[in-house]
Amino acid sequence: MALVALGINHKTAPVEIRERVAFSPDAVPDALRELTQRGTIAEGAILSTCNRMELYCGLPDEGIGELVAWLGEFHNLRPADIEPYIYAHPDHSAVRHMLRVASGLDSLVLGEPQILGQMKQAYSRAQDAGTVGVLLNRLFQHTFQVAKQVRTDTAIGASAVSVAFAAVSLARQIFSDLRRHTALLVGAGETIELVARHLRESGIGRIIVANRTVERAHALAAEFHGYAIGLSEIPAHLPEADIVISSTASPLPILGKGAVESAIRARKRRPMLMVDIAVPRDIEPEVAELEDVYLYAVDDLQEIIQENLRSRQEAAKQAEGIIDVQVSHFMGWLKSLHAVDTICAYRESAELLRDQTVERALQQIRHGKAAEDVVRELGRLLTNKLTHAPCSQLRRASYDGRSALLEAARELFNLKPNDN
Asked: What pLDDT, on a 0 to 100 scale, did the predictor assign at position 1?
């Protein structure tokens, strides 16, 4: 059986194609059962995110074309519509690809951690659908272990490479213990939501969410046990904020120099960090002229992100080394499966000889023969029976000049090297 990772991702296809082959979570179980009922595909799992759709399957070597055909049929597409965008990694390459994906090395944002959780969900759904066998079960478990090792042994995820993360990293640098501080978040979009998540993970003491639509502010604030206000209420609450992070779609600044100057006076000149990640800017640039205010714009964060991205790229080189080793380990296990039938047959043969010899010994004891004599005879007979076939084959190999088999036998039976 071959292992295959087949898919489409942000590197090979535009979003118009990716969205046409995406699987909703509810569709995955039926899709997996349909996929593995085709006869030649023994095992299967589906990973579907906004940036990639991948099938992980155990199937015959000639089954890749069938996978492409099934994918097209399921989504009502012709194979020709998706073939130019598809990549297929067999066996060794499939293992490497999965390890790289789970470790964040193949992501749009290098080192991002979300993909590992998404891969775990893909594995869980395949388990629930009953489409995971010995091969994929071992591969997924190995993948999760390697991804954890990469996170532990390298700095692949240590540096901020998103605007939201960079903003919160600045806050942690200026205010070492965020538990004692209040953050005012202006806006309620995706970026501010991500900022709120990072702040909560960093232990922020209190969050205030200000938005033009107060209902949306309430919804976001409730998720993070925060307090919601409208934009018009910002001046009244600004003195409470040690950290202000703003990201709205407003065409004009929301916070001016005068409002911030008043807030600083009310704060008795305690420092305030302000991060403006909106384009156009939400905070007037003149605010930077005020003492006790640290104002950063999105371009300032980009410099931090680029520096941290270079750091991640160095960590990625270390991660690739870990993956090289772990691919070899998995492929070694996979190759060992070829010996399973031989091992089972050998054990069955040995157990049959054992049972026959033991039964003969028991009969002798029942007929009154001395137990000590029976045990000695049992040992002699069992040794002769177990060594008869190998010895015969070794003598034949020696007669035929097959020295390689003789050397292999020494390794197999763990014998001392032949000095002759």
From this structure: 58
State the number of CA atoms in the 13 A half-sphere of 129 facing the CB.
26
pLDDT tens-place string over residues 252-263: 999 999 999 999
Alpha helices in 37-162 (DSSP H): 64-74, 79-82, 91-102, 114-129, 134-153
pTM of the model: 0.63
Output the DSSP codes for 284-319. Answer: -GGGGGSTTEEEEEHHHHHHHHHHHHHHHHHHHHHH
Phi, psi of 327 (to 5 degrees): -65, -45
| DSSP state, residue 209 | E
Q: Which residue has the tokens 């006790």?
A: 292
Q: How far apart are CA 274 and CA 296, in angstroms?
A: 6
Q: How far apart are CA 194 and CA 160, in angstroms?
A: 13
One-letter amino acid for residue 30 of the chain: D
Helix or strand (DSSP H, E) at 90: strand 87-90
**Per-residue pLDDT averaged across 209-229, rounded?**
95
Cα-to-chain-centroid distance, residue 284:
42
Average pLDDT for residues 41-48, to the nearest whole number?
94
Verify whether residue 57 is a known catalytic residue: no
Beta bridge partners of residue 291, listed in sequence order: none
Contact status, residue 103 vs residue 319, Cβ threshold 8 Å: yes
- Domain 2-153 classified CATH 3.30.70.2740? no
* CATH code linked to domain 163-305: 3.40.50.720
pLDDT 10s digits, 331-358: 998 888 777 777 777 788 888 888 888 8
Domain boundaries of the chain, sorted by first residue: 2-153, 163-305, 342-412
Distance CA 414, CA 330 (A): 25
